[in-house]
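Changelog entry: the BrxA/BrxB family bacilliredoxin record was regenerated in this release. Current contents:
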Amino acid sequence: MAMSFDSYMKDMVKPMREDLTRLGITELLTPEQVEEAIEKSKDGTMLLVVNSVCGCAAGQCRPGVAKALQNETVPTYTYTVFAGQEKDATAKAREYLAPYPPSSPSIALFKNGELAHFIQRHQIEDRSADMIAGDLIGAFEQYCK
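Regenerated structure tokens:
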């Protein structure tokens, strides 16, 4: 019995999803969920992690997010979309990340529905999880109080 590509990919990315969802980060699986999250964030702050299979996501981004969320000051809402998996949801999320080009992994912080801070892939791939966490904590302290 052959396994379908979709089943294979779902099994392969499950632990990568869980790296964030076990932290209480909610997955956005549809464009409508992305729109609802942005609307909800107009009354607070929102972290949006564009997750990916890429090695820098596993080695730096997801651990950096986990460390940052241990800070006393954190965003009101935390969400994630998975690039290459929920393509429509990711495309919708990227509409709110303009003027930045598509980048995965990446991390966005919104305040009152507006993009306030953005970390692109090139700012993740050559930095340690501690450095990424430090950047996020600085943004949390600036925008989430």
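The beta strands are 26-27, 45-51, 77-82, 106-111, 114-119.
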